[in-house]
Structures are given as C-alpha cells and as structure tokens.
Amino acid sequence: MLENDLLLSTFAAKYLNSMNETELKEYDHLINCPSNDWDIYYWATGVKPLPLEFNTPVMQKFIEHVHNKNREVRIRQPELEPTPRD
To answer: Nearest-CA neighbor of 8 among 38, 24, 42, 31?
Structure first.
C-alpha cells in the first residue's frame, strides 16, 4: 500500500543503517509478519490498538516517525542507493 511504502521507506532511510541486530529483527518482524498492510498503518496512526507482539522500541520509533512532529516533507520515497560490491 502506497501510504506504508512512503512511511516505511522514509523511516528505513533515516534509521536502518544505525539499527543493531535486535532492532533489525524487530523491523523485519514489523514489515513481514502482519498479514494486512493496513494494520501497520492503523497501529502507527492510533486508529487501532497496537498488539503486544508489535509493541517494540522500533515500532515506538516508527509511530514517532509517522506523527512527524517536525513536519518534515515526505511526499516521495527516498532514492535507492547502490549496494557496494565485494
């Protein structure tokens, strides 16, 4: 869903490179385990209660990102960066 793509891609661009192993696992669980993309959106926006399974530090950081208190302009997904080759 486009809304989640925009929110998750800007979140990943901002935080993914600084996440430790635990946070990466939490993020992976968040983006791969809910069967409905709308659930992530509704949890992050407070429309639906957040299940305990997804109430992690990464999700709390994502909720803060979604609330966008600094009013950052997020109207497009970040550019993909090439991965270094070994």
So the answer is: 31
